[in-house]
Amino acid sequence: MKANPILSIWTRPKETVGQLIDQNKLEFSILLVCIAGVGGIITALQDSGWFLDLSPALLTIGIFIVGIVSGLLNLGITTLLYTGIGRLYGGHGKLRDMAIAIGPMMIPQVFVVPILIIYTLIFGEQFFTLPEAFSITSIPLGAYFFLTLLTAVASIWSLVISSKAIGVVHGFSSWRGFGVLMTLLGIAILITLLIVMGIIMFTL
């Protein structure tokens, strides 16, 4: 009997990713990254003070459009990076298999999206408003810390699933999969530092 990937990914990530690759479930992966992309945009706009001059309808449409586009871009970029870096670690993964595996990596974040939507419905414009001076958020602190904790747990579990999924695609251990993620993180930090140093030197 085939497992439901939405449920089995939490306890059997390797088996779940392998099952989806065998079934060639690329469309399922695309759907998941698009949903996660919407959640990412909502999170980015929280307490930002951006686009509050837009009507609720336009803001909602914009969040969904940008979220879907960002999700697809994330799928394309991470597929290339995870595949390329994984091969440096001795892996033999294919691009299509990696693209299929990236969707399940997003499932913990997908579970947070309904909570984010509920928050926007409850708090409305307040959810997106820039906090006052010396305040960390515009919404009640209890609600803020609950959402922060939930997001942190989802991110950690996504990291665990991603390490195992990359390992499955490349045919090596989950620790090597974790190494791929840390290598990518290191590259991102290095590029960020170089950009900041460049800006500082340019402005002096």
Description:
78% of the residues lie in helices and 0% in strands. The protein has nine helices and no strands. α2 (13-22) packs across α5 (95-105), α4 (56-88) packs across α9 (174-203) and α6 packs antiparallel against α8 (141-170). With 204 residues, it is mainly alpha-helical. The longest helix has 33 residues, at 56-88. The protein is globular and about 50 Å long. 32% of the residues are buried.
Topology of this structure?
Elements: H1 5-8, H2 13-22, H3 26-45, H4 56-88, H5 95-105, H6 107-123, H7 125-128, H8 141-170, H9 174-203
Helix pairs in contact: 2-5, 2-8, 3-4, 3-5, 3-6, 4-5, 4-9, 5-8, 6-8, 8-9
- Using only C-alpha atoms, the radius of gyration works out to 19 Å
N-to-C series of helices and strands: HHHHHHHHH
Regions with little confidence, pLDDT below 50 for 5+ residues = none
Instruction: Please give the share of residues in helix.
Output: over 70%
What average pLDDT do the residues reach? 92
Put simply, the count of helices is 9
Characterize the main sheet.
Answer: none
The percent range for strand residues is under 5%
Please tell me what the overall shape is: globular
Class by alpha and beta content: mainly alpha
Number of strands: 0
Gap between N and C termini: 65 Å
